[in-house]
Amino acid sequence: MKPFGQRLAGALAHRGPLCVGIDPHPRLLADWGLTVDVDGLETFCELCVEAFDGVVAIVKPQVAFFEVFGSAGIAVLERTVEVLCSSGTLVLADAKRGDIGSTMDAYARTWLSSDSPLCSDAVTVSPYLGFGALAPALDLAAETRRGVFVLAATSNPEGAQVQQARVADGRSVAQVMVDEAAVRNAGADVLGSVGVVVGATLTEAPDLSALHGPILMPGVGAQGGTPDDVRRLAGDQLRAVVPNVSREVLRAGPSVSALRDAVARTVDGFAFLQA
Ligand SMILES: O=c1ccn([C@@H]2O[C@H](COP(=O)(O)O)[C@@H](O)[C@H]2O)c(=O)[nH]1
């Protein structure tokens, strides 16, 4: 298996530069005419798989919306991840894990170990216990040729309190996270496997020019970010940017063809990323 960064670069080139979220909000389940329970969750995910599998570059299930249903919800997540991964559609588990090293090791094995029922192509991690605490996930991802997306500058306004604070050399904390990720990507072919998360809602992005890895940009659509914001924040890194859109696409459901049309319209709006 090729490293995640290379697989992602191939998927973006062939399927367009979009990460579509599977975010089964209770409100969306109701709008789709589904019950707000595990049965509704399962049907929602089956329709998402039918609509997105083989169509979009990468799919991002939001783990929180599965965990809320307990073990039965996790079982739906396992099945969803398994179907997508086995058909070759990349899966990014949005779990935002981050803890002390020994616990991080268990999180890493959950999301990145080939023998785990939740094994995905990549996982989101939070570096706010210190970037070094992420080492078990970064090391296991390198070993299993999977990917990690490190939260750097998140799309929520509250993030700035921590992420825009300055360290002794004057860099923002968000910039430190990008620079640490860049060290992990040094020497990678095509695109490294350590990505960062930079919100499409921000007024300014960290300097991404040395990252050599994917840049996930959530916050497009429902949170107010636009394709123009993505263009502005990406700077000269257009080919590494992966906009994430969840509710803005999912609102088109439950019709599979309407979901696919929403994906196609959204991809068209980001044509500049592939030019
Ligand atoms: O900075 C971040 C990091 C992650 N997210 C996640 O992305 C989706 C966005 O959903 P929308 O419906 O498109 O707003 C969601 O799962 C968030 O948890 C983010 O928004 N910002």
Automatic annotation (TrEMBL):
Q: Which UniProt keywords apply?
A: Decarboxylase, Lyase, Pyrimidine biosynthesis
Say if the entry is tagged with keyword Chloroplast: no
Read off the PROSITE patterns from this record.
Answer: OMPDECASE
| Domain Orotidine 5'-phosphate decarboxylase as annotated: residue spans | 17-262
**EC number(s) per UniProt?**
4.1.1.23
Catalytic activity annotated for this protein?
A: orotidine 5'-phosphate + H(+) = UMP + CO2
Active-site annotation: K96 (proton donor)
UniProt keyword Transcription present: no
| Origin superkingdom | Bacteria
Q: In which pathway does it act?
A: Pyrimidine metabolism; UMP biosynthesis via de novo pathway; UMP from orotate: step 2/2
CDD domains associated with the record: OMP_decarboxylase_like (cd04725)
What's this protein's family per the entry? Belongs to the OMP decarboxylase family. Type 2 subfamily.
Instruction: Tell me what this protein is called.
Output: Orotidine 5'-phosphate decarboxylase
Instruction: Name the species this protein comes from.
Output: Rhodococcus chondri
